[in-house]
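Entry 12.
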Amino acid sequence: STAPHPLINLLHAIPPTPKAAATLTKILHKASLRFPLRFATPAAQPTLTHRSLQQNTILFSSEGLTVLTLDRIYTLKHALATYSRLLSTGAPAPAIAVALARALSELRALIFAQSGRPVANSYLQRAYDHLCVSPYALRSVNAAFVSLYSGAHVPISGVKEEVPRLAAPTAPRERERGSGATVRSFKGPYCRGPVTPGGWGDITPVTRGEWGFVVGGWKGRGAVETC
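Predicted 3D structure (tokens):
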């Protein structure tokens, strides 16, 4: 199947007039026929628009039209959220690889714009909190970034490392023999066989063969002498 064309979302800083909106729609339609691109104009997002205007990174400017890039924190977190979602849903490996490449590209652009300073995970999580990113995805992106750009520092600081889970130790078990003595057994990480019975009351279907051999021996010859 053919991969869909890249989608470009256009947010209006100022709502256009009906005439301007119609002209823009016509221009975008012609552009989509000529180039492998798709265009969309989603609903207004005041926070994203405000932060993008503050960032003021101009892509294109002419009389009556100025195109700015979206807030880099938003584009990074959107890419991270997409990567995290694909990981959690068990998406195909090629889709996950594309999402990881996009996240690394957005992260590199942000680090470059910040003159090499890492982005704090606490700040990243607070911004655009409707986008969710798992700690595993952040650790994976950090590791891939450091591996891809040799000598680079961890780009997202404050990401919690994975804590190994240790199994709780097995508690000793107690049982009473027929004589009333208490026997403590500890099986530890490996499963050992049943405790040799100390009397007839301790015999179970598992230990009956062992007890019979001790008393009767093999083919009638006793393994031990009894009085």
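Annotation: Residues 185-192, 218-227 have pLDDT under 50 and may be disordered. Strands lie at 7-9, 38-40, 58-62, 65-68, 119-120, 156-157, 173-176, 182-185.
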